[in-house]
Amino acid sequence: MHILVPIASVLIIGSMASALYFMMHDRGTTQKMVWSLATRVGLSIALFLSILFAHWMGWIQSTGIAFGRLSVAHPHVKPRGPTCMLMDAALVPETQ
What we know:
By secondary structure, the chain is mainly α. It has 2 domains: 4-57; 63-96, no CATH class. It has 3 helices and 2 strands. It has helices at residues 4-26, 32-57, 82-91, and strands at 66-67, 70-71. Strand 1 (66-67) and strand 2 form a beta hairpin. Helix 1 (4-26) runs antiparallel to helix 2 (32-57). The relative contact order is 0.10.
């Protein structure tokens, strides 16, 4: 999966570049631009479905989005940075 995503991304960007090339040079005389864009859509859908399948099979794990002290998947994951310190301060109740 670590190799599939970068390869698919390069292929998707290459398909978009070829569509741009055909749009500029063919001037609508051929269907090459349409086929390039259809290929891009097909590759994008295939990448999305393969990521969903890999998650379903357990080959990849989601880590969730850590927001302050609230983490969806892993409560022990704590984000770092100045913004998170502000969020932590806002989440801690004040004692009198």
